Amino acid sequence: MRGDLFNKRRATLLKSTGNSQRSINILWGRHNQGRHVERDQTVSSPTIPIVDLSNLDKELVARAVVKASQEWGVFQVVNHEIPKELIQSLKKVGTHFFELSSEAEKEAVATPANSKDIQGYVTNSQQDIEDKVNEEYARQVKKLAENILGWLSEGLGLDREALFNQGFGGGEKAVYTMKINYYPPCRPQANLVLGMQPHTDIHGLTLLVPNEIPGLQVFNDNQWFDVEYNPSVINILIGDPIWRMSNGKYKNVLHRTTLNTEKTRMSWVVLLKPPYDMVIEPLKKHTGDGDEAPKFEPITYGEHVERKVRDKLSKAVMTLDDIPVIDLSNPNEDLVARAVVKASEEWGIFHVVNHWIPPELIGQLKEVGTEFFQLPESEKKALASEAKRLQEHGRIWPPSRVNHRFWPNNIQDYREVNEEYAKEINNLSEKILGWLSEGFGLRRRLLLAVSRSGCEFKPFVYKDYKFRKLKKLALD
Ligand SMILES: O=C(O)CCC(=O)C(=O)O
Ligand SMILES: [Fe+2]
After folding, report:
1. Is a pLDDT exceeding 70 seen at residue 44?
2. How many alpha carbons lie under 13 Å from residue 140 in its C-beta half-sphere?
3. Where in the numbering of this chain does the Fe2OG dioxygenase domain appear (predicted)?
4. What is the number of H-type helices and E-type strands within the chain?
5. Centre of ligand 1 from the C-alpha of residue 267, in Å
6. Is the C-beta atom of 240 inside 6 A of ligand 1?
């Protein structure tokens, strides 16, 4: 807490003394040195570097950015010239979208009536405002991102434009995406469930503003740190490509998010991504300075993404822990639908629980099936030779197409149980197909991840879309 006050006071001091302030204008917090903290223990301490961008001595600013990126891979910028009001509007329109009272209204904003186009346009005035705000924020944040890349390039002994041009394709090629993370409260066991699992960002640079609910944590020096909320800062996180391009000099910070028991957390994240075919490799060699051997092989950004997803999958398959579990008894069907869409997009497999099919029926199904296979060989053969095609033999739906001739009639309840199960399964698949179809109709992807642990129905929903192509702005 003392450190926090210190930071605040220091920031004010820097501001009031303006340009004459020559002392280092990064506000380094204290490092909790000497305290050993377990990996899963969180230290709440304002130690994440804050860089004041208003200092006219840009060399100093550059040094602060470089130092923070080397030591932490994350920092906060203040006095970044993006108007406070713009950030407030950004948050307002995003929150409005997620909190539209009626689901029908949300649907209407997401999908224009009479349009089959997934990307369809909406003439709704709220949508116009949202687009304007998002575009203006995109323009501003793009300038900030390019400035940061400029300083990071200089820190590598390269031209100011090097990272942006060589790593992100420059100008029209660099892809900016905005994502809004939405973490509903997790009542039973918020402390046991994470919003986002620990990860490093797959894309290059992340520029993030959260709402006032804390949740972001970064890993440094063997401990987790809370990233404190401050409405004036933009959080900057270094992702994998910059880590590789800098030959490991800049850290790709490991981070995660926690959930709040009472309140919804949201974060607005602008991601700067290289084009998929861009080769990501240590850039230093281009300067002819061969001091340091490259630590990373060249790899396209697309390959990097694929590898990371593959790694994640193989890890998950080993534990099966991450396969989404969807609770169909949740009264909010919209949430259920989004969970199904997200699970299908990301996994292609999910578990459903509380799905209305009585467990007794499933038990009986297994019993009669097992009995069937225990019939004498001759009886099974007789049934099989009756069936011309395997398909017809096993058909259980629709009832009009079921040929009972191929069903065993000497197993009690075989027919009733199978018919009942077929009816239930048909209902369930129709429901799931319905939700999947709704998923195609959404202009924005509105997704919900689910967690198996305690909170049946949690972590986050997000929508994302590419910013419209923006002209490259001059670095200043
Ligand atoms: O919500 C946050 O604060 C972090 C989000 C994040 O790490 C991500 O979107 O990659
Ligand atoms: Fe992240």
Report:
1. no
2. 16
3. 173-274
4. 14, 18
5. 7
6. no
For β-strands 461-466 and 447-448, DSSP reports them as: antiparallel
- State in Å: Cα 367 to ligand 1 middle: 48
Confidence band of 203 (pLDDT split at 50, 70, 90): very high
Closest ligand 1 atom to Cα of 210: 3
Per-residue pLDDT tens digits for 292-307: 788 999 999 999 999 9
Residue 138 pLDDT grade (very low, low, confident, very high; cuts 50, 70, 90): confident
Rounded (to 5) percent helix, strand, coil in the chain: 40, 15, 40
In ligand 1, which atom is closest to the CA atom of 460? 1
pLDDT in tens, 424-444: 998 898 888 878 777 655 322
Tell me how far apart the terminal alpha carbons of the chain are, to the nearest angstrom: 36
Does the Cβ of 227 fall within 6 Å of ligand 1?
Answer: no
Q: Helix (H, G, I), strand (E, B), or coil: what is residue 354? A: coil
Does 50 contact ligand 1 (Cβ within 6 A)? no
Phi, psi of 216 (to 5 degrees): -75, 135
Contact yes or no for 206/269 (Cβ under 8 A): yes
How far, in Å, CA of 203 to CA of 242, rounded?
9
- CA of 237, closest atom in ligand 1: 7
Cα separation, 364 vs 366, whole angstroms: 5
Q: What is the DSSP letter of 468?
A: P
User: Which tens digit of pLDDT belongs to each residue from 352-398?
Assistant: 888 889 999 999 999 988 888 888 888 877 776 655 555 455 667 76
pLDDT digits (tens, 9 = 90+) for 256-315: 988 888 888 889 888 899 999 999 999 975 445 556 788 999 999 999 999 988 777 665
**All residues at 6 or more sequence positions from 155 whose CB lies less than 8 Å from its CB, including other chains:** 62, 63, 65, 66, 69, 70, 249, 250
Taking the C-alpha atoms of residue 38 and residue 224, their distance in angstroms, rounded to an integer, is: 9
Single-letter amino acid code for the residue at 226: D
Tokens at 439, concatenated: 């998923």
ipTM rounded to 2 decimals: 0.99
Contacts of 429 (CB under 8 A, 6+ apart): none
Residues annotated catalytic, as ranges? 179, 199, 201, 255
- Return the amino acid letter for 358: P
